[in-house]
């Protein structure tokens, strides 16, 4: 009998437990078979995004879907190899509360030589009706980019990481020199020195969990900031932020930017959300800027750019529709 474990065994028994953000959130592995994985997000008050209506923030759901889709790829591959998330789309079908676990069953339904296609369905415990669906696409790496330690899948459950498992900065798409990158005009971009807490007139547990704050540039542009924390790491090999965390940060920035732009107090509710991963999110502070594309009577469209060293080098580009709802009483 061979002592070599399959990619599915490798993922379940070793890699899954090595991811800081997965351990910190308590996401656990459910039923698993060829091409299909179920992950479960335990109920937690930190996931609350709308205290007034008692609803989950879309961010934890995105983290769960992102992780499950990456896991589905990991158990589908016939050999251990790195892979990276290209994009993720979420449709939020119905509201969910923070008092029940959420499960996500993801399937890798198409695997080519270069690309893996996945889809996922999220349900809350005790309810058969889906609360959200997701589609995610991954780029497969090549065997010569496998690490000396056995080729841990770079994208599995830590989506958004590049298809490389080398710990050497020289082997990464961008070396982590710690210096800001040029902004395209030959200038060096520097973030505002001062920042302030997110002020909504109420506590939003998930914003507190992420540790987000905000500041303004000299031209008045509102920036949202995600300070680095070890608990946000999704790829401990590079290391890199969890792709779902980057998406959750962008979703939160979109909601906050929309709240600030509306003429009357409203708390928007996410309808759909998509993210394109452009670069790995390194272990440093991340910034986001919103553009309100359109605000109608009931629905708004918002784009968000996320970056770390320079706005000219974004790590992610996102867009989403939000339901505005009724104006809140003054």
TrEMBL record:
Pfam families: 4HBT (PF03061), 4HBT_3 (PF13622). Transmembrane segments: none annotated. Residues 143-190 are annotated as: Disordered. InterPro entries: HotDog_dom_sf, PAAI_dom, TesB_ACOT8-like_N, Thioestr_dom. Keywords: Hydrolase. Residues 241-309 form the Thioesterase domain. GO terms for molecular function: 1,4-dihydroxy-2-naphthoyl-CoA thioesterase activity. One of its GO terms (cellular component) is cytosol. The keyword Hydrolase applies. Residues 52-139 form the Acyl-CoA thioesterase-like N-terminal HotDog domain. CDD domains: PaaI_thioesterase (cd03443). Residues 154-171 have a biased composition (Low complexity). PANTHER family: 1,4-DIHYDROXY-2-NAPHTHOYL-COA THIOESTERASE 1, BLR7284 PROTEIN. This is Uncharacterized protein (TIGR00369 family). It comes from Quisquiliibacterium transsilvanicum.
């Amino acid at each position: 009998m061979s002592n070599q474990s399959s990619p599915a065994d490798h993922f379940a028994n070793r890699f899954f437990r090595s991811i800081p953000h997965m351990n910190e959130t308590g996401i656990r592995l459910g039923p698993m078979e060829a091409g299909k994985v179920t992950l479960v997000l335990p109920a937690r008050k930190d996931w609350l995004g709308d205290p007034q209506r008692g609803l989950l923030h879309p961010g934890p759901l995105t983290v769960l879907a992102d992780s499950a889709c990456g896991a589905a790829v990991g158990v589908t591959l016939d050999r251990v190899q790195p892979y990276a998330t290209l994009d993720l789309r979420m449709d939020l079908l119905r509201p969910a509360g923070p008092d029940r676990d959420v499960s996500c069953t993801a399937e890798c339904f198409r695997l080519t030589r270069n690309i893996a296609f996945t889809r996922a369905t999220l349900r809350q415990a005790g309810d058969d009706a889906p609360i959200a669906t997701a589609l995610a696409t991954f780029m497969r790496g090549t065997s010569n980019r496998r690490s000396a330690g056995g080729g841990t899948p770079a994208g599995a459950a830590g989506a958004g990481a590049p298809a490389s498992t080398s710990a050497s900065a020289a082997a990464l798409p961008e070396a982590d020199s710690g210096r800001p990158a040029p902004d395209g005009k030959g200038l060096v971009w520097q973030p505002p020195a001062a920042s302030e807490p997110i002020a909504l007139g109420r506590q939003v547990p998930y914003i507190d969990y992420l540790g987000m704050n905000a500041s303004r540039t000299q031209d008045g542009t509102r920036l949202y900031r995600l300070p680095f924390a070890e608990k946000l790491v999704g790829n401990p090999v590079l290391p890199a932020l969890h792709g779902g965390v980057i998406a959750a940060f962008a979703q939160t920035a979109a909601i906050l930017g929309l709240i600030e732009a509306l003429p009357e107090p409203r708390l928007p509710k996410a309808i759909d959300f998509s993210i394109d991963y452009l670069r790995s999110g390194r272990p440093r502070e991340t910034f986001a800027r919103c553009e309100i594309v359109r605000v109608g009577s009931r629905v708004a469209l918002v784009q968000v750019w996320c970056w770390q060293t320079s706005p000219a080098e974004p790590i992610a580009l996102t867009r989403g529709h939000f339901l505005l709802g009724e104006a809140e009483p003054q």
